[in-house]
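User: Sequence recovery, please. Input:
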């Protein structure tokens, strides 16, 4: 499975976004697990696209990923606006749950990495309640530095999960997965941002109305005003897409 091969994509500023539906995405990732080959899945939004445009290393990480799904509403809008639409938004939070649902059929092993000890423990407990047929083969918090990377990678390898979910913030989690993907030897590794906070019950997900109106980002901003600085990337992205309309989806 490669981005350019079997997965139809649209390029947004040189980043190849999958055009598959949620159902098709899950099917492809089910095959990825069965293939036993390492795949990095990135659930990307406009904030990450803007970060990649400013940071060549981040751009490389995204271009090297086996699959990038359109997590952000802004990405779905941009593809549509530029005349090369994706099938639908594929939120990372929902994708995680869909993969665990499928994983129950195979008794997949799952490793959780990131957040605080309390949150990661509660997340593991709740996921086992929800999906009793999956195996949580290991978990640890995200508070470790580069000096401990090798030890963390070794313990994940030893646990041999089918799925590895990493929650360490977009600026750290994607480069970390990219760097150690082949050493980890996990069939599907995905950065999941704040998903553990929601699963553990530490934070609430946006109410259904906000989700329906595609305003989850606005709900998060209301809950966490400290995110305002990062959120400025959203209007900047929209203006940039409108200005560059003819060139947004051209390969770079």
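Assistant: Recovered sequence (252 residues):
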């Amino acid at each position: 499975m490669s981005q350019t091969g079997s997965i139809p994509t649209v390029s947004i500023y040189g980043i190849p976004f999958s055009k598959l539906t949620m159902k098709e995405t899950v099917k492809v990732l089910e095959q990825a697990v069965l293939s036993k080959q390492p795949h990095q899945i990135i659930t990307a939004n406009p904030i990450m696209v803007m970060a990649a445009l400013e940071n060549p290393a981040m751009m490389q990480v995204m271009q090297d990923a086996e699959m990038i799904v359109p997590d952000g509403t802004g990405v779905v809008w941009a593809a549509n606006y530029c005349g090369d639409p994706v099938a639908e938004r594929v939120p990372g939070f929902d994708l995680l749950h869909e993969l665990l649902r499928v994983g129950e059929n195979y008794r997949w092993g799952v490793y959780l990495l990131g957040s605080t000890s309390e949150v990661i423990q509660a997340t593991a407990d709740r996921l086992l309640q929800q999906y009793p047929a999956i195996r949580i083969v290991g978990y640890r918090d995200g508070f470790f530095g580069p000096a401990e990377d090798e030890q963390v990678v070794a313990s994940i390898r030893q646990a041999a999960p089918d799925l590895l979910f990493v929650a360490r913030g977009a600026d750290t989690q994607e480069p970390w997965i990219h760097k150690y993907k082949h050493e980890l030897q996990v069939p599907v590794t995905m950065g999941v941002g704040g998903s553990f906070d929601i699963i553990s019950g530490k934070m609430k997900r946006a109410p259904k109305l906000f989700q329906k109106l595609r305003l989850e980002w606005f709900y998060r901003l209301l809950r966490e005003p400290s995110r305002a600085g990062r959120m400025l990337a959203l209007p900047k992205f929209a203006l940039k897409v409108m200005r560059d309309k003819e060139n947004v989806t051209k390969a770079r």
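The CA atoms of residues 74 and 238 lie 7 Å apart.
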